[in-house]
Known about the structure:
It comes from Rhodoplanes serenus. By secondary structure, this protein is α+β, with helices and mostly antiparallel strands. It has helices at residues 3-10, 23-33, 53-63, 89-99, 118-142, and strands at residues 16-17, 37-41, 47-52, 103-108, 111-117.
Amino acid sequence: MTVKTILARKGSSVVTIDPTATVAIAAKTLTERGIGALVVTGAEGRTIGIVSERDIVRALGQRGVAVLDTSVADIMTRRVVTCGQQDTIGELMQQMTDGKFRHVPVVEQDRLIGIVSIGDVVKSRLEQMEQESNALRDYIRTA
């Protein structure tokens, strides 16, 4: 199973934010949209960072509530790991585990085309395991 399969099911909508937006706006957007991360985009819609709930909580813990008035650029993760549509779920799971992150933007030809969360990956993997289990049961019944 590939990232393309996940995007086909969930869609390719990505919520983005400008690096000059405040951390307060980012937190409000995350809450209102019920999501865990925003892709930070710069000129020409290029991905320049990602800001997650975790980034906001860490910044609050380090700097206090004053951080809410600073820009997203001050707290975002700048080294964004991305994936492509042809990456497998296994490869993506390994990246997320090794990097200890939960959201991966999907990029093709330097263009943001989606985002995959750990929840999306787990859901896809569970569906795949269920299909395999059903296939094995059917095979055993007919043998």
